[in-house]
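Budget justification, computational time. The allocation requested in the original proposal was used primarily to generate structure tokens for proteins on the priority list. As evidence of use, we reproduce two of the resulting records. The first is shown immediately below.
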Amino acid sequence: MLERDGYPQGVPCWVDTSQPDPQAAVEFYGGLFGWEFEDRMPADAPGNYFVATIRGKDVAAVGSQQEGSPPQPFWSTYVWVESADDAAAKAKEAGGSVLAEPFDVMEAGRMAVLADPQGAPINVWQAGRHRGAQVVNEPGSWNFSGLNTNDVAGARDFYGAVFGWQADPIDLGQGESNMWRLPGYGDYLEQRDPGLRARMANQGAPPGFEDVVAWLMPLNGSAPDAPPHWGVTFAVDDADAAAAKATDLGGTVLAPPMDAPFVRFTVLRDPQGAVFTASKYVPPGSE
């Protein structure tokens, strides 16, 4: 799997979770995914920011919960931007809000916390020294993020205006869902990994799949009362084993392992309440 060093404008680039007891979360996720951790906060700074690594490469992070944060922890997604200030201004113009105005994160970069018009938080990241996840889409690493909302049309307008995304419907046999596409992203990926488009086509991927940066799923059918939110999915080599391991480590299985087109997945909750999905890729034609 090719390692990453930065992302194009408008592509999700990082995920982290802020926890009441970050050390306990480190033990859970380290046991589940085999992550090793390094606290990147200065020794005299309050709190912790444990960056998880695979083969010494950054994959995600666990931090201390900040004062005023929601009581239940969750996983946050960051989108790479050239200017956090410009992204914040676009969010306001598109009818969203800015939950945290742009600010510098030491020398790592500059960020802002936005919310779409339905209230789903999304972070933007203007890179400094930290250039996003270096390992993705392999077992134990971040696979993708998805927006769950009850206003699909409004989400299309907002994220299109802020990031240039397009939402294309896709039939995966499990009700309505959409691919968030960033036109031109496939060209970037093909340049890094020649032959990617052909491999995707041979595996039955729909047209335009090489441009996909995230997913868009409506809440109305499955959880109409849930607040709009972004969720994260991590790749695993065995979804059933991941569910069993999470339980052993004190987590909860919210949705037992099940099959869907191209994947077998399970929805899990860590011991402090953050929800995430663990997914195994199942190539077409395999058992």
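The second record produced under the same allocation is shown here.
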Amino acid sequence: MIKAAARTAGVSRRHMMLGATLLTASALAIAAFTGLAKADPFPGNPAPAFSGATAAGETVSLSDFAGQTVILEWTNHDCPFVMKHYNHGTTMADLQARAADEGHVWLQIISSFPGTQGHVSGERALELNDERGASPTYVILDESGEIGRAYEARTTPHMFVIDADGVIQYAGAIDDQPSANPASLNGARNYVSQALDELAAGEPVSTPETQPYGCSVKYEGT
């Protein structure tokens, strides 16, 4: 009787485990269908969907740019690493101009929480770009940090290149010189430019992911 009871208990446990597995699978399927499944923001994966308010008062969504290459740039105008590429060099401005010429979309994203370094009004964000000769397609004000956290954006700058199919093809640093020294711009290998070149040639991106460098993104509570 003891052996029979043990067998019965084992069968019951297996049934419970199977039931739990089926419930989990069902929940994941429902989440995916309703768009609630979390997207992993890494090369080779679909880019996490988002919508955000722009500095000009519009609302844009990633889905608005289906069929186009999209570049995401996390920024903080007071960060020395960002200043290297805007104030002491023209790296960002040149890339933005190139993106526009090639029909790409450049989304500059500010995830600084109100009261933290880098937080600005929409009006000031546009003024800063005028002063620096920058020309992103849109500036997105991500005060809640929702978009930044969805992409696990860690630094300013932190760059992403999303292809026309909505797949992340590059994520990481803008170049291979993790320094705030303007002299490091000389001879730097620009990963974003390289990714755009390779995508234009129909080739796989040879360096799809690198370690981003810069100032930490100033999320709420950080």
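A brief technical remark on that second record: The chain has two domains: 1-37, 51-216.
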